[in-house]
Amino acid sequence: MTLPFDALETWAAEVLTAAGASERGAALTAQACVRANRMGLDSHGVVYLETYVRRLRSGVVDGRGEPEVVEALPTLALIDGHFALGAQVGTFAMEWCCEHAEANGIAAAVTKDSSHFGAASFYSERAARRGCIGMVFSNADPGLAPEGALSAVLGTNPIAVAAPPVDGVLPSLDMAASVVAQGRVTLAAKRGEAIPPDWALGRDGRPTTDPVEALGNTMLPAAGYKGFGLAFVIDVLTGCFGGGLVSPELVEERGAAQLFIALKVGAVSNQRSYERRLRELVAAVHDAPRAEWAPPFLVPGEREARTAYDRGPAMDLDEATLTLLRAIGEECGVPFPVSAAG
Ligand SMILES: NC(=O)c1ccc[n+]([C@@H]2O[C@H](COP(=O)([O-])OP(=O)(O)OC[C@H]3O[C@@H](n4cnc5c(N)ncnc54)[C@H](O)[C@@H]3O)[C@@H](O)[C@H]2O)c1
Questions:
Q1: Nearest Cα residue to atom 6 of ligand 1
Q2: Is residue 277 part of a domain?
Q3: What pLDDT does residue 339 have?
Q4: If you placed Cys at 262, which of 25, 67, 97, 258 could pair as Cys (CB 3.0 to 4.6 Å)?
């Protein structure tokens, strides 16, 4: 069963509004979720509506909250998210950065009292389309620990870096500090699928392929202690730097902290040199010698761009997702579009 992404986004915004979100918060959150689906980041797609609706209804997220600049230097802002939807806070913060980077070459904004903002590249790519290199860091609920752990310690804290495109390639690294995003384990649990043994630990601190066991304990860091170190410094850059919460304190991402940075391309050196160097860099990756059996080498973000191309204008909905979305629609009084029900 398929549904056009545009129809999915309209429905998602209506659901969020019915659950108490402001028009802008609902529109940006729906856009962030559906964009994730378009690009194959399904763990952060419309399945997250369940979480957002629950948090809006319980007051963990303030649907009427409005992000506010509470301290500003010429190129650095502290933004109070007032517990608004993370997509609204993140968009506000990255827009502030881009505007100030236009004049100053660089700008950064750190948020406190924000909330879960979905896929980090929603914000870094927004900057890239405005001619800036965008960088994004966020903390998240505890979900990550080293081997042998009996509970999660730090968040799966994502990092994203995106750069203005050249020849249609928009470099965009977007990754959790864990082997993969925890949302992929949640998705596997919903679908009744096993997970690879190197993703997570069960309650006994040993590797598990059971997503439910994994959700009861912790994800493993990407590349061992390097991913753990990355998660740690992301907490330093976000919660510590901005005076917000750090990941071990977070529950339901209420009060999550984020850092956004925009670097204006061409502010030093020049735009043409940037484009030439990036073109050469991309070619070095694409043209690198590889074994016959090796798949083509990609730059970060290309996999998602290809998925978006392959998926086209409509989303295939599996039975588990469809059941979930119908239930959310029923709960919020916004029936899921009939055309998808076949
Ligand atoms: N908001 C939060 O609290 C939170 C927490 C964790 C993760 N997330 C989000 O979860 C999403 C998924 O994260 P993930 O770590 O599972 O991502 P992933 O492991 O699927 O991909 C990570 C990066 O690797 C690149 N990549 C993948 N295959 C490649 C290949 N063959 N060659 C070259 N590059 C390749 C991708 O383009 C991407 O930039 C991200 O959008 C992230 O922001 C959000």
A1: 176
A2: no
A3: 66
A4: 97
